[in-house]
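COMPLEX REQUEST
Ligand: 6-O-phosphono-beta-D-fructofuranose
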Amino acid sequence: MLRIAMLTSGGDCQALNVAMRGVAKTLYKNVEEVEIYGMMDGYKGLMYKNYRLLEEKDFSGILTQGGTILGTSRTPFKTIEEPDAEGNNKIELMIQTYKDLKLDCLVVLGGNGSHKTANLLSQKGLNVITLPKTIDNDLYGTDMSFGFQSAIDIAANTIDCIHTTAASHSRVFIVELMGHKTGWLTLYAGMAGGADIILIPEIPYSIDVVVSAIKQRKETGKKFTIIAVAEGAITKEESELSKKELKKLRLEESKKYPSAAYKLGALISDATGQEVRVTVPGHVQRGGQPNAYDRVLATRLGVKGAELIMKENYGLMPCVRNNQIETISLSEVAGKTRMVEPDADIITQAREIGLCLGD
Ligand code: F6P
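STATUS: Structure written out below.
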């Protein structure tokens, strides 16, 4: 009998169910006796024995379903080694559940934070396989995580919709996109949606450059401008600050500006006198059905995950390299963030078509 548990951890995204389906279908097809336990609401389910034994039918009809059938939650890694409210050791609780269920492997679908905990559990002796999910695409060791392409579609569609109203009203529009500390989503959605200015954390922006790009458009008869700005975008001046100083500044500014786009909006309207509007699609970007690309990607990664389990090859994350599904060790993935390289091909290509990147 093969016994595994699955859990989804951190922010949800499209194609989580698809990836779990890929693992489950492969195991049911190739292994005579399989028990799959679903841990509810992320690592919490593993800690507090909140799980259910899943059946083959639970994995049918979920290919197109967004979110996660298991629920998810954030369990910050920085507090994972602190006792819980009852004074219990959270790691020991998780190990105990694993042992009590006589599991052969734990499958964790997660992003950056979740991988740190997965790696810790692996180091503590549990058999762990992970699958790379996040709309941010910032997970080290894989060219692509599932969720990313679906989120791009939604974000690009938002920019498409903004185009018509921006053109009608001759306004400057700022669309703020998710991505945490990285600019992958903003860069790809910005290019796909035809934004005029794209601002990402990896390339700190100068407000003077942004303002002059807007003025230049106006001078050439283009009455509107669309700016795609990443939620983590920073100005050149802010990039000189220490982490602590920036945190302090953000806290002070939060009373005035709810997020990066609002600050940018205020700076632009002061400098140009033009009407500025801000749109923040927020969690819409993580919602709804996975697109076709993510369905295929998550299935391929899920199948690879199941193959690793069948070969008892643990401590790994299936990943994408040059469109091939390969693997990388959890210790290599954990604790790193994959940023956009400022000299990457795509950045050069963005500049070639005249996109302003704020620098
Ligand atoms: O990591 C995915 C993500 O959507 C980020 O892009 C965003 O910064 C964050 O999660 C939002 O987190 P929450 O859902 O906890 O508000």
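REMARKS: The CA atoms of residues 22 and 302 lie 4 Å apart. The pocket of 6-O-phosphono-beta-D-fructofuranose is lined by residues 11, 74, 111, 134-136, 178-180, 231, 286 (CB under 6 Å).
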